[in-house]
Specification:
The chain has 137 residues and is mostly helical. The protein contains 8 helices and no strands. It has helices at 2-18, 29-38, 44-51, 53-57, 69-79, 84-88, 93-101, 109-120. The radius of gyration is 24 Å and the shape is elongated.
Length: 137
């Protein structure tokens, strides 16, 4: 019975998508050129920061200044997979979103290296403050 149902769905899929004929599709080059000419630029970072109100406030002067390396280390130890330590250090919003989307910074490897880099350079972490790269080292 299961094979019969599978065969039915395969046949239905084949019939449905085999009737589409590529010769029926036409591209209007003038309309396409007009669409690109009238398109507005879009920045994913700006739209994300605009949709999350507290994100725009993170770049204010109240948050800028001396960053404590101990706080960065502790954040990296406890919530490093979420990239919160990079948010504390002033990195762009999409960097720590990248940490989340790559399952904790390439499965925890990037936060581990960040921890080592922050521990080795404990006296001067200024190269890592406001660092826009995904790999801060």
């Amino acid at each position: 019975m299961k094979r019969l149902i599978q065969l039915f769905f395969i046949a239905l899929f084949t019939i449905t998508f085999s009737t589409a004929n590529a010769a029926n599709y036409r591209i209007d080059d003038k309309a396409l050129d007009h669409m690109f000419a009238t398109a507005q630029s879009f920045s994913l970072t700006e739209s994300f920061e605009a949709s999350v109100p507290f994100m725009a406030d993170l770049n204010n002067s109240a948050f800028v200044g001396e960053k404590d390396p101990l706080v960065a280390l502790l954040l990296d130890i406890f919530v490093g997979g979420l990239g919160i330590h990079r948010l504390y250090l002033g990195t762009e919003t999409l960097t720590w979103v990248g940490y989340i989307l790559t399952c904790g910074g390439i499965f925890g490897i990037v936060p581990l290296v960040d921890l080592i880099v922050l521990a080795v350079n404990y006296d001067d972490i200024s190269p890592y403050i406001d660092n826009p790269r995904f790999f801060m080292w």
